Amino acid sequence: MPDETEALRAAVLADLEATPDLRAWDALRVAVLGKSGTLTARLKALGTATPEARRAHGAALNALKTDLVAAFETRRAALESAALAARLAADRVDVTLPAPAAPPGLIHPISRTIEEIIAIFGAMGFGVGDGFDIESDWFNFGALNIPPHHPARADQDTFYLADSGTPPRLLRTQTSDVQVHTMLTTPPPFRVIAPGRTYRADHDATHSPMFHQCEGIAIGESITLANLKGCLIDFLRAFFEEPALKVRFRASYFPFTEPSMEVDIGWDRHSGEIGRGVDWLEILGSGMVHPRVLANCGLDPRQWQGFAFGMGIERLTMLKHGMTDLRPFYESDLRWLRHYGFSALAPALLHEGL
Amino acid sequence: MKFTLGWLQRHLETAASADDISEVLSRIGLEVEALTSRAAPLAAFRVAHVIAAAPHPNADRLRVCQVDTGEGVIEVVCGAPNARAGIKAVFAPPGSVIPATGATLRVGEIRGVRSNGMLLSLREMNLGEDHDGIVELPADAPTGMAYAEFSGLDDPLFEIAVTPNRGDCLGVRGIARDLAAAGLGRLLPWQPPAVAATGDSPVTWRLDWPEACPHVLGRAVRGVRNGPGPAWLARLLTAVGLRPISALVDITNFFTLDLGRPLHVFDISRLRGPVLTLRRGAGNETLAALDGRTYALDTEDCVIADAGGAVSLAGIIGGAATGCVAETTDVFLECAAFDPVRIGLSGRRHHISSDARQRFERGIDLGLMPAALDAATAMVIALCGGTASAATAAGTRPDRARTARLTHARLARLAGEPVPAEASLALLRGLGFEPVAQDAASASFRVPSWRNDIAAGTVLDPAPGLDPARLAEARAGAEVMEPEADLAEEVLRLRGLDRIAPVSLPVGDAVPRATLSPAQIRTQRARRVLAERGLLECVTFSFTDARTAALFGAAAPITLANPIAADLDTMRPTALATLALAASRNLARGQVAPALFEIGPAFQGVTVAGQRREAAGLRCGTSPRHWRDPARVVDAFDAKADLFALLAALGLPMESLSVTPDAPSWYHPGQSGTVRQGPKLVLGHFGSLHPALTAALDLPATVGFVLHLHAVPEPKRRRRAAPELPNLQPVRRDFAFVCAADTAAETLLRAVRGAERGLIGQVTLFDRFELPDGKISLGVEVVLQPRDHTLTDAEIESVAAKIVAAAGKATGAGLR
User: Fold this and answer.
1) Of A77, A341, B9, B762, which is most buried with the most CB atoms under 10 A?
2) A38-42, A292-296, B183-187: range with lowest mean pLDDT
């Protein structure tokens, strides 16, 4: 009997080793350990055997069963593992194939610059005002101390709208109309910037008939020329990310401010680097709001004073990013937009740095 | 305004260098546009003496000259007809660069004769157009001297931008005065020499239009000889770009630039009659002017006329027929004051920008007229001889006497820091402001006659409809503050704006508040959403061509009266119009599938209400080919997806939006829709662009959308209720509805959604196809979300029945 048990063990183990897959494995398991399996039959036979025979073979057969159950589990794990490996091998893809592309959309550099300007002036307490591209003569000129015969009007090649009354309506030549709207609707003190589209009848390599300006105005009872300087220096240093940027103020003339001044920043005119070199670059115009402009809008210049400034957004953009040509800003060439565009997911946030 | 250092030094005693002067000019508001030395490119050239000139052995037109350069005699081959023995010329040695060509001169052989340099013409030195021959210098020109030194071309040339308020700085003396006041030297005294007058003027003034010309002076000088002016005068004028013409003309040009005082000289023999009248132009009158052009004068022009008609467009340009010529012997000098506004308007109307107009338009020194006339008379006599008559005049000098007050505390309040009273007073005195009263708090000054910009009188153009009491208060304030600001500006600019210490704006809130309004935030958000959806942001022009505007529905186009180009003459009715052009340009360049958007204005009218802000986008053509995803032509639902993503991001209540197939005419009528919130509020539209439009613009299949940002209502700020998160499993049921082909899916879905609001959660259209009988099958998945108990089969069947009934009622649909 012990020989028979060992023979059964050897035979089953050999068959188990030969099972090619889980199905054969299961058939063998049923044939050996199932209800009418060979081993089960022997164990059943023990019930009818003599107590001596049961004692003699019982332990061996039970040991065999334990061993075979373990062997079957081991074999099953091996077969499952092999099957998985085979499936994985079959499922393999060429991971170097290109994934479907979702070309990113991007934000235009002009919008980006406006966003940066808003972020910086916002931190200095400015709100943002909106004006209108088509304005009346008064908002663009009259309110700003530019009477019809003023030479400044000849300098600004104004677009007029056909059949739009007398005097005709016009495309605003500057975003200064927004300071007028603000003064008429907002009781001082206030601080407002106004980025927007402006228009002048001029078209060449450095002029576009449409371009963007950002006007700013701060009115209060004690907004001074020293504040004008501080505010604009703070802005320019933040915008160009040059904490030690040199800024110079030169006297000038605008009809709507007095005193008026041009603002220059230090740069290297050969390399175009802002904040380097020994040259000066005119960057914006500014001044203390003219008493007539305040009075035109109903503010008493004895009580209220403040400063205003204006700057070209394309120019700031070109200087910051080293662009040399103005015209592509409006041409919508996909190649240019993809090259200079900004991600929508990285907006201008002061806490992330501009 | 151009002037040389030498000219400036006629009025300013200074040891400052040209660079120092330049820096101060820019600082005080006289911006230097260029400071050039014309000597540098001429440095190598010398005055030379042509000792002999013999014919070239091998060429008829060439001469072989023996030239004394000051360092020895050498041989030079020259082709100029005036190259002859005895003249003084300008010699360029080998190795020097010829300014006009940029070529470096080498020793060479010309037709077998060695030439060791070159004799130069003005054109070769970039000093003029004259190329008739080489330069002939006066016989006393020192041989060997640098030509730049001899010609005065080593005098540094300033070119400054004079702002419209500073007419006084359109004269060298005014510039010198500003520099002296800024501490750069001493203004030299200027006094016209006394003129000995003999007899009355044979020509007199008659003033018929005193508003245009309040005051005019004149004087005759008889027996003059009008040859070329002296070399010093020619040099001054040439240096600033004026061509010397004759002594008399050069004298008037000199005073225009030197004192900012335009003058005119008439040839008395060419005037008809003894009276010059200042009057309005007559309707049919013309003037053949000194610039060679003929101007049709009108009644708004002030003219000077003799018995035969207009001889001058007053203050702007003189007539050719009465100007001075070589034979002129008797002249009449004009020295007038003209109304700046009329001069400006006339000049603009006739497109004449003369030196005289520039100065009269900005306002001349009314106090200088008699002195200027005397100075000019004296110079005429000195340079041309002759005898002066007594001066003649008409009108009276306008009373422009003004005083202006500077209050020290107001100056400090404006500047942000105090300026010592003595410093302010000294600076203003330097400019010619004489104090007439002063105390510790303020000082009043007499405004000098040349400063027409100071205390000019407060002219307001107040806002229409301003409350009269408020306006009166504001006007009173402006009348006080304007002269103060005028003087403050003078003090601060001369003192140096850089001396004021910058002070950062005081910050009201330690943490800044939101900078943008809700509407502005929506605009920013729209930009980010559209970019994130793969659209590239564009900035296109607000104007376009009339044809494109018409394609995009501009029924009443808004056109420019003075467009810069014919294809930029109409305001765009929608940003989609200019985006479509941009897409077309990109496709023409070989780019594929442009996907663009723009946020900007659209113009439906010229008033405030007609100007709208919109977000527009478009997608063109076929998506790029990919090995996994087949290429697909864009369709209306791509545009709808963009628009709806945008609407959702802007916080619109999506369940209350509806779509109807009534989009504007530029869309495909069967593949476009208008989106509304509620029954009336139109938020935007989307769809395929009309095939006729895409054909006209050379576009492939193109879809687009517009969102009217101005129409988007402010989202309601409601506190969010806690969400319902039932633990019970949702039940999903599919329904296949058969309905008529024209059934709007939205109607069906809405009906299904409303069939049992307490239970029906999500409703999804997952399938749509056409049946052979022309009807359509719509597959709808409904998610039932039980709230308090697991649904029984009976309950589910009951809901399903309600769904089918609601669908049937709304659309006539039945189950398939």
Assistant:
1) A341
2) A38-42
- Give the pairing type, strands A279-289 and A305-312: antiparallel
Note the pLDDT of residue B301: 95
Residues 6+ apart with CB under 8 A from A26: none
Q: What is the pLDDT of residue B125?
A: 86
Question: A1 falls in which pLDDT band (50, 70, 90)?
Answer: low
* Cβ-based neighbours of A71, under 8 Å, separated by 6 or more: A12, A13, A16
Tokens of B319: 């007539």
What count of residues does chain B have? Answer: 816
Position B716 scores a pLDDT of 77
| Number of Cβ within a 10 Å radius of residue A116 | 23
Between residues A294 and B84, the one the model is more confident about: A294
The pLDDT of residue A39? 87
Q: With an 8 Å Cβ cutoff, are A225 and B471 in contact?
A: no
Q: How far is B687 from chain A (nearest CA, A)?
A: 20
Q: From residue B692, how far is each of B347, B696, B698, B701, B702 by CA, in Å?
A: 50, 6, 10, 11, 12
Q: Cα dist. B309→B283, B297, B789 in Å?
A: 12, 11, 108
Q: Name, in order, each residue with C-beta under 8 angstroms of B789's C-beta and a sequence gap of 6 or more.
A: B728
Spell out, as residue ranges, where chain B has pLDDT lower than 50: none
User: Nearest by CB to A227, which of B503, B596, B601?
Assistant: B503
Chosen for mutation from A211, A257, A258, A349 (greatest number of chain B CBs closer than 10 Å) is: A258
- How many pairs of residues across A and B have Cβ atoms under 8 Å apart? 323
Q: How crowded is residue B205: how many other Cβ atoms within 10 Å of its Cβ?
A: 22
Question: What integer pLDDT is reported at residue B129 of this predicted model?
Answer: 66
User: Could you tell me the domains of chain B?
Assistant: 2-37+156-187 (3.30.56.10), 40-151 (2.40.50.140), 204-395 (3.50.40.10), 406-463+470-495 (3.30.56), 518-711 (3.30.930.10), 731-815 (3.30.70.380)
Q: Are B466 and A298 in contact (CB under 8 A)?
A: yes
Give the rounded percent of residues in chain B with a pLDDT score beyond 90: 76
- Find the residue in A nearest to B561 (Cα): A162
CB contact under 8 A, A292 and B458: yes
Would you call B492 and A292 a contact, using CB atoms and an 8 Å cutoff? no
Give residue A210's pLDDT band: very low, low, confident or very high (50, 70, 90).
Answer: very high
The nearest alpha carbon in chain B to A158 belongs to: B562
Dist CA B244 CA B233 (whole Å): 8
- Give the model's pLDDT for residue B608: 83
Give the C-alpha separation, A208 to A354, whole Å. 27
B382 touches chain A (CB under 8 A): no
For residue B702, the tally of other CB atoms under 10 A from its CB is: 26
* Bridge pairing between strands B46-56 and B59-68: antiparallel
Contact status of B493 with chain A (Cβ, < 8 Å): yes
Helices marked H in chain A — which ranges? 2-18, 22-33, 38-48, 51-91, 109-123, 137-140, 151-155, 177-185, 225-239, 291-296, 313-321, 328-331, 334-340
Distance of residue B542 Cα from the nearest chain A Cα, in angstroms: 8
CB of B274 less than 8 A from some CB of A: no
At residue A152, the pLDDT reads 61
> What pLDDT shows up at residue B45?
92
